[in-house]
Structures are given as C-alpha cells and as structure tokens.
C-alpha cells in the first residue's frame, strides 16, 4: 500500500477513519433507531416494520427492504431548501436512497423475512461529507435492531440478516488516497469513491467516479485496499453495539 | 381557578408542564440552533439568516421572519410518509408553519432587522403532543441566538427582538383543564387550545377549538389562566439559556 | 362593553354587522345551495352528499362533513392566480377549509348521518373581508338544506344537525373593537379574530391573532362579547331562511 | 335548410337559441365583468388588464389576450373534483381556454392594444351544455367593457376591438341539426360542433366532431347555416349591452 | 376548385402531399409499430394492447382506444424542454392526444373490441409541420396491425376496425389554399385546418382556425375539397401497407 | 482471464460485444445526432448547443455539458407509463442522466468550451439491456459532432473534447463474466457493472453492484479486464464515424 501522510484535520492519517459513534434508541418511537456519527456527520437512521410489501411482491412469500434519505435544511453550512417545498425529490436523493436500499438487501434473506417491508429512514442532522456511507452503516445497525425485535417477539424464528454490512468513502486528493473524506476533502477530490462491503469481505457496491481527471487501475486497487480495512473497523463498531451485552 | 387533580403520566398535576429542556447549539452548522424538549416531544429548531427578503418587501427597508415545520417519518409511533415523497405540503403543516412565523414576527422589530430574512426550521425528531407549541418556544430561543450573533458581529447595533415569546397547549379532558397535553391526552381532549404569549403578558395568538362539544366562556377563561402561568415558566427557561453566563 | 363610535363605511356602528343576505338555491345542481353576502363579500356555498366516507371511517357507521374553499381570480381588486394553475393549494386555503370543516362537524351527529359524506364547496365570487366567516355561515345553511332533503326523501329519519352555527370576525382597529371587518378595516387591524359559535351559545372556535402588537385579556373579552351578539343575529338570519315558510 | 321540428325542452325549435341573458358588472372588482346565461348554463366572465405581456412579446409593441376556464365543483349535477386539488389542469380545460383565447384575439388589434395583457377568467357557476360557447360570448362582452374603460381613462385612443365575436354549438341528434344544445341533447348527439363567428360573418373557428358516426359534407353545411343565424342573434344581444344607453 | 400554383419547397403543387412513407415494425417490442413520414415530419406510432379498461367502462363489455403524443426535445430546430422535466403536460399536447384518440375511436367498434384498451403512443422524432395529422395517419395503421394480431392469435374473431381513417392539414397562405403544410408554410398561414376523414368519405373531425383574419364559407369549402383528395391518397398508402402481400 | 464459453444469443462469446452501429445525422434538426445500436438496443442521441450556462457558472468563463435520458413507452416489451404523465422523473432516470453527464464532462475542457451549454438528449427507441452504456457511447459521438460544427463555423478554435469516451456493461451470470449484457442476461446477473473509460485507458466511472450475492476482488478485476477491451472496440467505432472521410 502506498499512503503517504498528508495534513488532515485533527491530524488524521490518510487511511484513518474519523471518530465513529453509533447511539442506539435515539428515538423511542421506531422499531430500530440508531444515530450514527462519522466525525461531524450525524445521521439519524430509523427502521420501520410494515406488514405490507410493494405490489410486485404480493403473494410471492418474499419481503422488501428499502430506504429514504433526506437532509435537514440546516445540516449544511448554507441552508438547502426542503424537497417537500420544491415538490419533488432531486436526483442526488434518489441515487442515495437507491444505494442504501440495495446495500441492505444484499445481506437480508428476503424470503426468510416473509411478506413484510422494512423502511430505513436516514435523516441527516449535520453533514460533513460521507453522509451516504454513514447512512448505510447506521441503517444496517438499525435494521439489525428491528429484526432482532421481530425475533424477540416470536414473529420470526431467526434474524433474516445474514451478516453485517457497512460503507465508507475513499478519494484521491492531490494524488493521495484518503479514507473517509470530510466535506472539505470531498470537494477537492479528483476521484471520489464509495465502497460497500460485508463482514465476510464480499463486495456489495463499488462506485468510483472521476470528478476531474480519469484514474488508473492501480489507483482503483489502492482505494479498494484502504476502503476494506476501514469497513472492517466500522463493522466491528456495529458488532459491539449489537452484542447482547451492549443492548 | 378550578383545576382538580386527575391522573396524568408521571403524576403530573393538571396545571403542570412536562419536563422542559432547551439545548443550545445542537448543530454547529446553523446561525442559531436549539433542541427543545417538552417531555418526550423533541423538536430541532435551526435559525438561518439570509441576506434577501421576499419580493413584496424589496426596497422597503424591512426584514422578514418565517418558519418551516416538518416531522421526521418516525417521530410518531406509526410512520408518516414524507411530504417530499407525496410532492406536496399538507394543510396541517401549512397551518403550523404559518402560526410559528406569525408568533415570532410579533416580537421582532422588522424595520430594525433590516432587509434580511430569518428562517426557522423546526423539525420534529420525536412527537408526543404539543409539537407546535414546543416549536414556537424553541424557535424563539434559536431566533434570539441568531440575532445575538448579528449583534456580536457588528451587523446590527442591537437585537431587534423586543421580548421573548413562548407557547403552550391547554385542553379540556373529561371536563378538566389540563396544561401541556401529551399525545394520549390530546387525542382524548374535548377542546384543544394553543396560546402564544410574550414575556410581558401580551397575547399573540389564542386558538381554542372544540373537537367534540362546544366549550363555554368560563372554560375559555380557565384555559387562558392555566396557559399564562405555564408560558411564564417557559419564558424563564428561555431566559436562563440566553443569559450571558449560559452561552 | 366599551365600543366608541368611529367612522366606518356606510356609517356602520362599531358593533354592527354589514347587511347580511342568504339566497337559497342559487344553483339548481347542488343538494343544498346558498349564496351568502356579508356586505360586498359574496360566497357561493354548495353542499354535495356522497355515499362514501374517507378510508379511516369505513365500516365505522359514522359519516363525515368537510369543506373546500376557493376564491375566483377576480374576487379581489388585483387578480389572484388560480391554485389549479400553480398546481398546489396554498397554506391560507388549507387553513380556511380546515376551519370550515371543523366548525360544521361540531354541530352534526356524525353517527346519525351514517356512512355518507357531505362536502361544502365555498367559492368566493367577490371578496371584501370576512370570507371565511361568511363561508361558515353560508355553508351551515347549505348543509342544513341538504340534510333536510335527506329527511324529506326518507333517507334519514331526522336531521343529524343538532343546532345552527355561524361565524363572524372581530378586530381591533386603532384600539377600537370592530365587528365584521371589511377588507379596508382588516388590513389596518392590530388584532384580527374569528369566532365560531352555536345557536345555544357554545364556542366552537376562538382564534385571535395579533397582527402587529399583542392584545390584552380585556381586549379578548371585549372581542368575544361583540362577536357573540353578532353571531346571534347571523343565526337568526339562517333560521329565517330555513323556517318551513321560507323554503 | 332542412330542420324538422323535434321535441326539445320548453318547446324550443331546432334552430332556436335558449333564453340568452348578459348581466354586466356582476362583480365590482374586475375591469370588465359579465354573467352570461344560455338557458341554465351560467358563466361568470371577468376581464383583467395587466401591464405586462408574456416573455415572447416583450419589446414587440404588441399586447396579448388570453383566457382561463374553470367549472365550480357543483356546476354539474355530479360533483367534479377541483383541478387545484388534483394539482393539474385537465386536457378538456386546456382545450377550452385555448379556444376562448384564440377566438378573442381574432377580433383584437394586438398592436393597438400595446404592451399589456387582458386575461378573461371564465368560471362556470352552473353547467347545462354549451359552456365554452357561452364563455366566448360572455368573455367578448367583458373584454369590450374592459377596453372601453381603457379608452374612457385616456389610456387608449380607441378600442382595439375591431368587431364583436360570439360562439354557439350545433349538433346532430337523431339525424336532426339542433342549435345550442343543452346537456341532455349534447350527450345524445352523433355530431357535436362549435362555431365562432364575427359580427361581419367571418369564420374564426369551425370544429365539428363525430362522436359516434362520421357526418357528411351536407350535414356540415347545414350545421354552419344554423349556427350563423344563431350567432347573429348573440351578437345583437352583446351589442345591446354595450350600446351607450345600456352602460 | 380554385388552387393557383404558388412556389412551394421541392416544387410541390398547392394540392399535393409531401412524400408519404409508412414503415411497419419500426420497433419489434410493440403489438403494432409504424414510422410515418410526411416529408421531413417523422412520427413513431406504437400500439399497445392492455387487458384493462378505464374505470367508467368496467363491466360494460366495451373497450377503449386512446393516444399519447409527445415530441422528442430535438424534433424541432430549437430544443423544446421535456414535459416530464416541467412536471406537467401542456395544453397543446392534451389537445393533440385527445384529437388522435377521438379520430381512432370513430372507426372502431368498441363493443367488438371487448374489455381491453389499445394505447397509441405517437412520438415525434422530427417535426416539420403536420405532426398531428401524420400521427393520426400512422396511428391508424399501427392500430390496424395490432388488431390484426389479435385476430391472428384467435383472441378476436374479426378486426373491430370498421374502415381506415387518415388526416391531413390544409391552410390558407397568402390567400391560396395549400395541402399538407410544412412548418414554414404553417407559420405563415392565415387559416390552419385539420381534417380527419374515413375511407368511405365520412367526416370525423373538421377544425378550421383563423390564425390572423377570419375566413369565408367559400374558403372553408375549398379547404375541405383539397383535404378530401389528400386523405384518399393517404388511405391508399395505409391500405397498401396493410394488404396481406405487404406484411 | 477466466472466461469460459457459455450459451449466449446468436452464439456470442462471453467477452464479445453485440453488433454495434452508430448512424450519424439520424435527425437533421440537432447540432449533433447519432443513433446508437448495441444489438437490439437503440438510443437516439441528439446534441443541442445553447448559449447559456446554469446559474452557478455565470461569469465563470466555463461551459457545461449535461444529459437527459428517457425511454419511449414502447421501448420495452411491456409498456412503461411516461414520466410526463406521472408528473415526475423517477430515481432510475435521474441516476442515468447524471452518469451520462459526468462521463461526458470528464473528457471536455469546460473552460475551452466557453460559457455555453451542450445538452445531450438520449431517447431510447428500443431497449434490450445496456441502454445507459449505449447512451454514453452514442452521446459522446453526438457531442463530438456538435463540437466539430462549432469549430467548422469558427465559433471555437479547436474542439474542447480531449479524447473519446465510451461505456459498456459487464456482469456475472452463473459465475461467468459476460460482456455487454442483453436484457435477458441482465435480469439473471448476480452482479451488474458499468464501466466508463477514455480512449487513453483512463477510468471515468466504475460501478459494480451485487444484485444477489456479493462479489470478490478477483471477480471485479476480471470484469474490468473484459470491459476494457470492449470499450476499446467501441471507441474504434466512434473514431471511424468521426474520421474526416466518414462525415
């Protein structure tokens, strides 16, 4: 691996995550609730269990997991108008909520879930880069909590979540591969990538976008290496939260 | 006054507020940020200062104060679909955000504010009744914080906020006048009212709605008496937060 | 009571209504139709009986009463764009139609109505202040006409309308309490209030809003006194229209 | 001409108009206001003069005349939901308001009007067939009244309206050509046509639609003959309203 | 007839169609697909058979034929923004798709079709005037192809299409009646008309609109004469395509 | 590389593209027009040059390249309702048009383009998998044609397009890496990826999504190898089209 130390806020190393915090039960109203923090980025992830499925799954015996993502207007330094006021959901929001939904479905046995839906609401309270990867990481934990409740109540014999899944961003800034970019770094990145991986190391999603200049196969390899170790730390944090003694 | 003790959650007296908490700077991104809690009801109130005014105020020398209100989908025990997904703002939301805006403007000297707008975003994280009165109370504090910053930075010579303002609900449940209704009480109330009052005791808004059976002039008088003392406590809490030593 | 004579259009006394007129059967197409005039304010109120109820009332045995409110573009001196052209209903419209619906439901026994809905369409043909209070007053009469037809046709054994209900505005202009404000007075008012009351004197809705400066408890009392006598006159007018000899 | 007597409501002859009435100044708020009645069909036509033109006419020296059309929900025997509630204008409404606008522009010298717009709001209070032809006929009168005011106030040296224009429907019912169809006749018509013609006999719009079976050239000729004489009567009614002694 | 030779692109005679081409099976995905070309105007007409009918036809035993019309953004020399981006369908689009639908239904026995719907999607790839008449002409052919497949598969015993139908534009340019106007001619026309006629000569729709100055009865007669012979040529082209040997 | 022969339609090898065709000037109305075909997938790509830029680029001296993507309703075997009818753009459409825009901007010197925008409209006429990669490939060619015209007309001294760019899909079906999936293969794929690459081999976008089961690093490597050689063939096809002798 080829990560040189460069100056990052709070003396972070190039391959170092920001301080990660997962707070369970942030609201008492949801079936699963986790406030996830990646540094200053804070996303509230709430899981809802509904006893219906989308039309195309009716009578299929299979369930569904989906997500909605939104930013509070003042999650950002400059106020972002509400999508409810503008009367439509923007492209970026659509892209992110589809990504969260796909990531979570990759680790859930939808047949074992049965004909019910789980909706993960991911609302960004404060944004400092990496809101979509924080949302995936927090939503996976909230989903696990909600599924555990279905097991505890006897609704399901075992959790249909096969393993944990988490996500992190990696980017190239001034030629350097950096892990878990904050907003400042993200806006300077030449390449921006998001990686979603499972506890057992399987890749769920690899997205690497050249923002200014194309990147090479070697750079892609380095980004994936750095992302992998970051994700393993995130999954360890999730696991600690979900361990019996932590609840 | 004629308030008999009846059974309320956590042994609250009929004329007693729920535990009130105002947390300043809940997010670091907004010009003024207050998390307000009335018992289990939690509303994040963020103030944004913008250097523009709505069209009808251009070149008037006057500013504007307005509010937007929203509930996160899982603020409630049953998930409420997002208004951004439905593509339109509902009547209840419109009604509440207009009430918050009017209440705040009643204590601000819009000419002294100058041609700038302050937007108060009130997002309900958890709802247990009284979200609109909590929002007014928290938003008034967030507005004060934002105006104080404009004074501190030398943009304004003095805060254009003439006095504090707060709000509380009062209702009639089984013939009893109760202060600061939680969700359970609110859904049983025969009459539901919201009162907005200033520190000096001036009435800004009185709304009393018969949900099932009409109410009498005497009952209205009693509701206003109970609300008045509750609001004075709320304003004391705001004042404590805003006192120099608290910041 | 403390109402001093001040100059009003057409030498109206401070506590005097404008000329009130209720014209039944303004259109022949509706189950109940009343054109209501408060001075130059003219609102067409049409009642529709539908044999369905909103989803949440299905199989409850209970009916529903609701209202829609709209202004024709040239009801006002300056043309107001249609909400159908803008593609959404504004906050003021939502607020008014919710108020009309609540007011009417307060005097109807929804269980006796059975599983049917009555929709009151209130369309303002000409606006000179007080359109929402005129709408409530006219809609109550149109609702009564429609319910009487259900009795006449044998669909219902008796009208489920327990008593009449009407509404009027009261405001404080230059410190004076004035009844039934026209547009000119309304735009100068320091406080603007709307009161909805039943024939037996029960309060259904009290809304008093400080437009510029807060008002006192004494002023609220005076406004309610003036409103009460105005509403009794309105209800007398409704009763005359609905009396057997008038139909 | 080949019009056999057939039974029509109120013993109308096949080539006879329903009772026509034009009431000027139905509202006092608009620059020109006419309530037009074709039998039970009643349309309120209000003209608004605005000092702007659509973008594509800016700096062209030319004005614009346009129309908006709407039906009150209970203009019809069965309630029609509001387009504002559904959030979009339907195809039929678009088609009608485009027809009204084109018809009026055909008799106005847009260059002589100067860079201002006249909007004709046509709101159907009660519908019994022929609402679009009544709207054109009433709107032409309201437009004339509004333009006369611009002349009276010295804004324009002379009215830019070259001549009057009116419209009527003609249809084929059971093989018979009938003038000015009411709703009952319209719903039985094999062919439905609308003709717009000027005072000097020029055709502005001919629309003839086979609803069930195609029609012949001879039938089209007969429909146009019957329409012509009906329109001349409508224009005589407009002229009487607009004559100096009538105002 | 009174058609003088005037200069038209490619030396076209006043009563001459542009080169007409109908290409069947332009896409393989639709039940019936025809690319229709009137000179440079190219419209892709695809027929879809659905096994449902609109609500008002359920259990009526009757089917429905409807159309949707759209222009690709660069069908025109200046790009036209998509209606999907603007979030609503414009008035012109509504008018055209209603016209196409009516024209096709006039030649289909809806009872013989049974409870199924046929949707004709008419998408303009390149526009040079006459897109709506080309669309009707191409859609009638696509509809016939789709119905023939229902017969071939044994779903229907015989095609419910009674006869062919086609459409053409006629206009008056500098006092001359011209057939099948291209964009350049259309934008200069004093009168613009569209005629829809069946194979047996029955009129389905006659629309003649004065764009600048009213037209006379004689001019209308001449336009209909010229249109008739044009439509007979169009129907011959359709018939050739649909003849057994052509498929 | 580890690609075993498996059965594909038309005996395609696992690493073989479908027949590729680029037809220039498919419409005459656009500044650049290319019909791209990847087997049965056909996308019409039209480039529009506009002399404005989005607000955030005004006075920056820089231009913009963006894309819109849409499918005709019958591009698919089952009709897809139009987004214009539903009144909003779906998430998938947003995602695709953002991807096309980013891909094209990566090879354009926006400063050399100057303050003008190029919009690429990508309309799918027939869909059989890979519509987004076909769209990128065709749009790059249409963009190049449009830029060449700006050079030919003297508006720009040289084309601001630094190099060609193309895209292809790769997927894993039954454990095999397949290039350029058709619809049938795409719906069976365990992993679906899209790769965008420039003529010089730089990566612009790598998106690899596990549809059912996570994929390994080795599989990702193999997919990128297969995609690379496919893209080089696509770029050769673009280059042939754009070579002077081809125009």
Automatic annotation (TrEMBL), chains A, B, C, D, E, F:
Q: Where does phosphate bind?
A: 92, 130-132
| The UniProt record lists the keyword Transferase | yes
Cite the InterPro entries for this sequence.
ExoRNase_PH_dom1 (IPR001247), ExoRNase_PH_dom2 (IPR015847), ExoRNase_PH_dom2_sf (IPR036345), PNPase/RNase_PH_dom_sf (IPR027408), Ribosomal_Su5_D2-typ_SF (IPR020568), RNase_PH (IPR050080), RNase_PH_bac-type (IPR002381), RNase_PH_CS (IPR018336)
**SUPFAM superfamilies tied to this protein:** Ribonuclease PH domain 2-like, Ribosomal protein S5 domain 2-like
Its domain of life reads: Bacteria
| Enzyme Commission code(s) on record | 2.7.7.56
Q: What class of enzyme is it?
A: transferase
For the Exoribonuclease phosphorolytic domain, which residue ranges apply? 16-146, 164-229
Q: Which reaction does it catalyse?
A: tRNA(n+1) + phosphate = tRNA(n) + a ribonucleoside 5'-diphosphate
- GO molecular function list: tRNA nucleotidyltransferase activity
Q: Which UniProt keywords apply?
A: Nucleotidyltransferase, RNA-binding, rRNA processing, Transferase, tRNA processing, tRNA-binding
- Record-stated family: Belongs to the RNase PH family.
The record's annotation in NCBIfam families points to: RNasePH (TIGR01966)
Question: What is the protein's given name?
Answer: Ribonuclease PH
Species annotation: Terriglobus aquaticus
């Amino acid at each position: 691996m080829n990560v040189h130390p460069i100056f990052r806020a709070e003396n972070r190393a190039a391959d170092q995550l920001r301080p990660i915090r997962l707070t369970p039960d942030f609201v008492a109203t949801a079936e699963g609730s986790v406030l996830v923090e990646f540094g200053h980025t804070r996303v509230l992830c709430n899981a809802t269990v509904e006893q219906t499925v989308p039309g195309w799954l009716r009578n299929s015996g299979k369930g569904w997991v989906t997500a909605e993502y939104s930013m509070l207007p003042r999650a950002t330094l400059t106020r972002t108008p509400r999508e409810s006021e503008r009367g439509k959901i923007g492209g970026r929001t659509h892209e992110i909520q589809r990504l969260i939904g796909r990531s979570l479905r990759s680790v859930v046995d939808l047949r074992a879930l049965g004909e019910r839906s789980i909706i993960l609401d991911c609302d960004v309270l404060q944004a400092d880069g990496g809101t979509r990867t924080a949302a995936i990481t927090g939503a996976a934990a909230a989903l696990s909590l909600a599924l555990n409740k279905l097991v505890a109540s006897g609704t399901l014999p075992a959790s249909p979540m096969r393993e944990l899944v988490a996500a992190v961003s990696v980017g190239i800034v001034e030629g350097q591969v950096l892990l878990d970019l904050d907003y400042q770094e993200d806006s300077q990145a030449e390449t921006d990538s998001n990686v979603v991986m499972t506890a057992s190391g399987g890749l769920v999603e690899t997205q690497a976008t050249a923002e200014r200049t194309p990147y090479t196969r070697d750079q892609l390899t380095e980004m994936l290496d750095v992302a992998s170790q970051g994700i393993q730390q995130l999954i360890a944090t999730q696991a600690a939260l979900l361990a019996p003694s932590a609840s």
